[in-house]
Structure formats: structure tokens, C-alpha cells
Design goal:
mainly alpha
């Protein structure tokens, strides 16, 4: 049996089949199974039936992300563990075709949360404070500065790695910093002991390697996870303005009638 993070959550009856499928999926995507296990557990507790009302499944597919891989949320909820892994693979492959290789657990989580920022600088603001998107994801504001940056998102997922698994989930576990990866404690939660400075997991410059491919259909990569997400209803402010105008007009009519 594989000793992956959260493997104990997978039902014993299908665990062998799960491990075989995960190896095939991750080999095809050129990612580590440990990364994907942590991301899926964070999003859904590894429950293919998980739903928050607007997103469903292992990586919380929204209407748009489901559409981008040729399915629907209703169809995803009918899939079992093994079947839905195919959809996760299809989704992440779309992200790779669009933004390039997923090189770390952080890249994978950004791909599921806000894929337009896979190749953005770590300081890039994904969600500004005061917006509906920020208010719905406050837990990801890791440094509590009032905005959610790419680095906040990556730090959040690093914190979800069980302490005993941090070395196995690392991109590198050697005695020197891999070329192009963070040094010191730039990612403070990513260490196995208080004195450990040899475990690194994120590209120092995530902007490198974007192939410049077209965004999958249904995605607004510069702004949100996708333009169909319920947290990104651009019509909402205009609807409020329109409703306010109607209320004011009705109130004016009532006052006019009273004066008469």
C-alpha cells in the first residue's frame, strides 16, 4: 500500500484500484501523487460527491470548469472515485496545455483555485479585499493583509500537508537548494523541523514556462477561477442598481399620491 497523505480516507475496498489509477493519472500529468492527494483532500476530503452548492467533486468543479472538460456538475456527482479521477486528469491537462507544466503542489492548487494565476508572480493579487471573491475565501489570506495573493494561495495549501508528509511532498529533499526554487524560509510552513532548511517545494519565479496557449472555453483566466462561477456574477451590481431605481420610483409615486 502506498503511504500517500490522506490515503486512509479512500475506502479499503477500492484502495488498490485507486492507487493504480492515481499512478496512471499522475504519470500522464507528470506530477506527484502526493501533491494531488493533498489538493483533493483540501477541496473535498477526497469525496467525489462533495458539494458546496456551486462546486462539486474532488477539486470542486464549477459550472464553467465542468463545461471546459465536456461534462456537468450533475454528471460529476454521479461518478465514483475512479471515474471522477479521469475528469480531474482531463481538467489538469487543460491547465497544462494552457499554462505549462505543473511543477509543484502550489501550481496544482492554483490550477484548481484560480488557474489564470498559475504563471503569475507570487505577489500578484488574485482577489482584492472587499470583493465578494475575497469575502468568500478569506481563509486563504495567509498573511492577513486584506488581499489574497498567489503566495497566500500556495502557503495555504502547504499548510494542509501533514507534518509527517512534508518531506515526501517536497519537490526536493536534498542538502542544497534546487536551481530556481525558494531558499531559506520563504515558505515558512514548508519545513519538517524547526531547524530544517533543506526542503523546498515552489519555483522561485512561477512566471517562467508559460507556453501561451489559449484559455479553455468558459474560462476568464485573468480574473477568476472561471466566468461561470457563482462568486463572479458581474451582473449582480447592476441588478442592485436597477432594483434601487425601481424602489425609489415607487416611493416617489406613493409620496406624490399622498400630496394630492
Amino acid at each position: 500500500m502506498e503511504n500517500w497523505p490522506y490515503i486512509e480516507v479512500i475506502p479499503v475496498a477500492i484502495r488498490s484500484q485507486w492507487e493504480t489509477k492515481m499512478k496512471a493519472v499522475c504519470t500522464a500529468l507528470d506530477i506527484r501523487p502526493e501533491w494531488l492527494m493533498v489538493v483533493m483532500h483540501t477541496e473535498s476530503k477526497l469525496n467525489p460527491k462533495a458539494s458546496n452548492g456551486s462546486a462539486v467533486g474532488f477539486i470542486q468543479f464549477t459550472v464553467g470548469s465542468a463545461k471546459a472538460i465536456g461534462t456537468t456538475r450533475a454528471e460529476l456527482l454521479q461518478m465514483n472515485h475512479i471515474q471522477q479521477l479521469d475528469m480531474v486528469q482531463k481538467y489538469l491537462q487543460r491547465m497544462i496545455d494552457w499554462k505549462g507544466k505543473l511543477r509543484s503542489i502550489g501550481d496544482i492548487y492554483v490550477a484548481t483555485f484560480a488557474p489564470g494565476y498559475i504563471r503569475s508572480a507570487n505577489s500578484t493579487i488574485c482577489y482584492k479585499g472587499g470583493t465578494r471573491e475575497y469575502n468568500g475565501n478569506k481563509a486563504l489570506d495567509w498573511d492577513k493583509d486584506g488581499n489574497i495573493t498567489r503566495k497566500d494561495v500556495v502557503s495555504f495549501i502547504h499548510d494542509k500537508i501533514p507534518l509527517e508528509d512534508r518531506e515526501s511532498v517536497a519537490f526536493n529533499a536534498g542538502n542544497s537548494t534546487p536551481s530556481g526554487f525558494t531558499s531559506g524560509f520563504s515558505w515558512p510552513v514548508f519545513k519538517t523541523t524547526a531547524n530544517d532548511d533543506t526542503i523546498y517545494g515552489e519555483p522561485e519565479d512561477p512566471t517562467q514556462g508559460d507556453p501561451g496557449g489559449p484559455a479553455p472555453e468558459g474560462f476568464d483566466g485573468d480574473v477568476q477561477k472561471d466566468k461561470f462561477a457563482t462568486t463572479n456574477q458581474t451582473w449582480f451590481p447592476y441588478a442592485l442598481v436597477g432594483l434601487s431605481a425601481v424602489v425609489v420610483a415607487l416611493f416617489s409615486v406613493v409620496l406624490f399620491q399622498k400630496k394630492r
